[in-house]
Amino acid sequence: MTAANHVRIELASSPPCEAFRPRVVAAAGKRALAEKPSALAQGRSRTASIVAFILAAALVGFATNLSMHLLNLRMQYLGFSGLAIGLSVAIQALGIIVVAPLTKYVISSCGVRQTLMIGALLSSTALITFDLATNLFVWNSMRFMFAAGLALLFTASESLIISRADGTNRGRVVGWYATALATGTTAGPLLVTIVGIHGSAPLLWGALLFWLAATPIVACLKRGEDLAPVVRRSTFATLRFAPIAFLSAFVFGVVDNGGMAMLSVYSVLSGYDYTNAVTLAAFATVGAIVLQIPLGYSATNQDPRVVLLFCGISSIFLLALLPNIMSVKPMAFGVVFGLGGLLEGLYTVGLICIAKYYRGLGISSANGCFVSICGLGEFVGPLATGMSMDYLGSQGFVLGLTITLAIYIVLIGSVRQAAQPRSANAG
Asked: Is the pLDDT of residue 15 over 50?
């Protein structure tokens, strides 16, 4: 009776029976020889699928950041106010918060391939429609539709990647994924400088990128490998199994969109010109790209909680240094390099926790919740940081992030964590 009432959000995935059926060979030696090539081929196929999935996720990041800058600049060109642009960005964040937890239902009904196709269709259609929209209500409606497609694409592709991560490759897979995602996100705005913001061409390029992101997964995903979550209770019931993962997702959203995104503003308030402010922000981005693989390996080889505490405490230390060394540009660039990498590590290690503790409880369910909570942090972060900078000036930037990270460290140190990975058969 107890087992029947237990909250179960399973990952019902049924590979072909042949994957588990031993080969029938008369001699033991022949059997071993027959199985070795099969294992080697399976290993190569698995590696190829991981690479394809990581490439797809990087393309999603590339297209997402391209679209964010492109849409905001087009709104400014059309004469929308700063408040209207901010509201539109908030609506996009709200769309991700709402739709990401629902991705598991779409996957359950349609499968991963169809979910990716739906996501690409929604995002690309919305982008193309922006070329015709001039009314703010229509623009924001399309922005919500764009976010819905983005949430489906991002959650499905990320779920597939972490479903391939186990005890032998978890740090490597998630580390490379975080590195590829950060690289793609960073490179997105560069295309805007090439194709511009006017006319249909930039929007068509963005739409094409979303279809290109879905293609590698559809090509490499074999029948029987689809994620099919069996939903028993609320998605947010997954929170209790690995709370440090979801807490890290929220704090990352706050410090990323409210911290790293505001770093250039802080730099200008501290006396930098616009060129140096952009350069400083670029160093933080490079740190986010470079440090994810080492952090991923560390989280695999020891308790992820220890790595998260290291990231939080070290980030506070670097934030304390920042106001005192802003006048020494090489030191400031080095500090923000480490700060960008450590704060990005909150997301990377949080994903490793998902891969570790949700092997059978529904990775798509947990990841949808993870993305949604991260989106909530992205929504809250700029508001909190902006208010602190309004009242306290440039020091509000450092103080706001420091308080957020200090609360995070206390919670990480005290919150109860699942003792071991949960399996689909756990009662």
From this structure: no
Those residues whose C-beta lies under 8 Å from the C-beta of residue 178, and which sit 6 or more positions away, are 292, 296, 344, 347, 348, 351
pLDDT at 336 over 90: yes
Q: Domains in the chain, please, with CATH?
A: 48-228 (1.20.1250.20), 231-427 (1.20.1250.20)
Contact 173, 161 (CB under 8 A): yes
Which two tokens mark 188?
A: 């997105």
- Residues 67 and 191: beta-carbon distance below 8 Å: no
Region at 196 (left for phi over 0; alpha for psi -120 to 50; beta for the rest): left
State pLDDT tens for residues 176-210.
888 888 888 877 777 777 888 888 888 898 889 88
Compute the distance between CA of residue 348 and CA of residue 340 in angstroms, rounded to an integer. Answer: 12
Return the SS3 of 11: strand
The letter for the amino acid at 395 is Q
Contact 399, 222 (CB under 8 A): no
Give the E-state strand segments of 273-380 in sequence order: none
**pLDDT for residue 423:** 41
Under 8 Å between Cβ of 116 and 227:
no
Which one has a higher pLDDT value, 166 or 149?
A: 149
Angle at 336 between CA 264 and CA 87, to 5 degrees: 35
Look up residue 108 and give its two tokens. Answer: 């359950």
Rounded CA separation 322/320 (Å): 6
CA dihedral 140, 377, 57, 167 (to 10 degrees): -160
Model pLDDT for residues 83-133, shown as the tens digit of each residue: 777 778 788 888 888 998 888 888 888 888 888 899 999 999 999 988 887
pLDDT value of residue 12: 35
Q: Which residue has better confidence, 264 or 150?
A: 150
d(CA 107, CA 119): 11
Query: Could you give the C-alpha distances from 195 to 63, 191, 192, 200, 201, in angstroms and in order?
Result: 13, 6, 5, 10, 7
pLDDT of residue 123: 92
Residue with tokens 């990041």: 61
Q: Three-class SS of residue 313? A: helix
Pick the more confident residue, 171 or 339.
339
Distance of CA 124 to the CA centre of its chain: 20
Q: Give the Cα separation of 321 and 325 in Å (integer).
A: 6
Alpha-carbon gap, residue 225 to 48, rounded angstroms:
14
